[in-house]
Amino acid sequence: MKITVVGAGKYGSTTAQRVAQADYADEVVLTDIIEGLPQGLALDLNQSRPLEGYETKVTGANDYAATAGSDIVIVTAGKPRKPGMSRMDLLKDNAEIVGSVAREIAATSPEAVVVVVSNPLDEMTALFQRVSGFPHQRVMGQAGMLDTARFCDKIAERAGVSPLAVEALTLGSHGDTMVPVPSLATVAGKPLQEVLSAGDIEEIVQATRDGGAEVVALLKAGSAYYAPSSAAAKMVASIAKDTGDRMPVCAWTTGEYGVSDVYLGVPAVLGRAGVLQVVELDLTEEELANLREAAEAVRSKQADVDSLG
Ligand SMILES: NC(=O)c1ccc[n+]([C@@H]2O[C@H](COP(=O)([O-])OP(=O)(O)OC[C@H]3O[C@@H](n4cnc5c(N)ncnc54)[C@H](O)[C@@H]3O)[C@@H](O)[C@H]2O)c1
Fold first, then answer.
1. Ligand 1: which residue has its CA nearest to atom 12?
2. Whose CA is nearest to atom 21 of ligand 1?
3. Nearest atom of ligand 1 to the alpha carbon of 11
4. Which among 25, 227, 282, 287 counts the fewest CB atoms within 10 Å?
5. What average pLDDT does the segment 215-235 reach?
6. What residues pair up with 73 in beta bridges, in sequence order?
7. What spacing in Å lies between the alpha carbon of 258 and ligand 1's midpoint?
8. All residues at 6 or more sequence positions from 114 whose CB lies less than 8 Å from its CB, including other chains
9. For residue 248, what pLDDT band results from cuts at 50, 70 and 90?
């Protein structure tokens, strides 16, 4: 199993670390345009193997020869936000970067399953699929796993319980039209509505939508990467090990929830072939309406992206 991480910045390097440390891949290839950066990080990561007790080798490279024949590719190349920026402000710059990565990956790893994380996420996922020409099933984006983790953690903090006692789900876009789904959330098995007030839940939903910006504002340079890399690594493990786990991912829709022909955050079953199935859950009317609104917002932006890349 060969896994490539494109982009050796904060997100890419921590993802390479998490994937290598999980020790199911033969090799993780880390690439970047900055000379020496992926090679230095690879050296450092490999030297942690005797301490951490895993064997997966990390290779650093500045070209795509080392990535050839990858089974899975994670695309983290691109600019992160600065304080005050929206993810959409990254559109033009990152479209150029993700477009060039898609051409290289299509040429060198034509059978890969691809997880895009570069922002704006839904648009960059669509762009990668279009430029690579890969089947939709093999190109997905990571956002829902991260947004769900933020939602769960905020619920746990407010309810005063362990984050492990909370189950929840976040769908929609990775942006203003994110759709946290309180109706399906539970705390220690109890419906969220029985544990927190409607006002508390509304505040947490909004704080979840603003979760990325909250970190960006504090860091002042760059955006979050610990939870984001955990989210991508979970998806990659599920694909690599063909687990059939269901998780929220940015996937191509074909009529589910009344939405078609757009990349959107939906629950999906992941396996070795990529997105095996988009799952339709029972949402409230309001949640469903919000999800459809998110789909239309992403669709109109994706039309802009069609001229980029
Ligand atoms: N989907 C999510 O949930 C989520 C969460 C956090 C960050 N992000 C996004 O992930 C991306 C990366 O974030 P980061 O914190 O790692 O940023 P970063 O600036 O630390 O790293 C980005 C890296 O990409 C490299 N790069 C630029 N062009 C490249 C190219 N053509 N080929 C290969 N590498 C290239 C840069 O040299 C840099 O090392 C950003 O777009 C950010 O907005 C997404």
1. 76
2. 9
3. 16
4. 282
5. 96
6. 4, 114
7. 33
8. 72, 73, 74, 75, 105, 128, 132, 134, 138, 139, 140
9. very high
